[in-house]
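Before going further, it is useful to explain how the protein records used in this thesis are read. An example of such a record is reproduced below.

***
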Amino acid sequence: MNKIITICGPTGVGKTGFAIALANQFNGEIIGADSMQIYKYMDIGTAKPDAQERATAVHHLVDFLDPKKEFDAGKYSQMASEAISAVVSKGKLPIVAGGTGLYIRALLHGLFRENTICKNTLARLSAELDAEGGQVLYKRLQAFDPKAAEKIHPNDGFRIIRALEVFETTGVPISVRQQNHNFQQDHYNSLTLGLNMDREQLYHRINLRVDMMLEQGLLNEVQGLVNKGYSLDLKPMQSIG
């Protein structure tokens, strides 16, 4: 079982800088675990490691996917596993770093696979989302599966629809099915480091980051994506946080 370091933590806590420092100190390479930094053309809004940072330490699974392409935790787990094997084959230390917890759990412990996808139900729920808005569906989810609703942002229409689809198709809340899976498999010998800081200080750092993003041209970046033909309805264009 390969040994890796995993770095996780909230937005703005300093995961990128810490990962780069570890990579330089322990002859490592970084495997990104951020569901937005994978996309091309979204540099400012995703706080993607810049050219200088990527020159300081090798990064994998960053800035490689067109925003129109479908991607999920299963694909991430497969590609991250391949990247880890490549890093290990060079005699280096794989350092997984990012803020997408589902990606990290899928990589370290296996993915909860729900094979009951009903396209008709998904299409109907998507139409309801467009017609009625996310709050209506979110209240329905709170009634059917309050545990899942606690973990899903009210504006995250994609995950709300998925949770409702599982319940309507199987009659079992998705939170129960996930609990039964419980991510019990261990795929790697991971030293997992969770970064955190005082909440008030963290919020201050996030506010400064947002101001810096605007100064760096975040609005122009978004307009550039629209000008390239990327619809605001695309999943990466609706990212939260």
User: Anything to note?
Assistant: The mean pLDDT is 91.
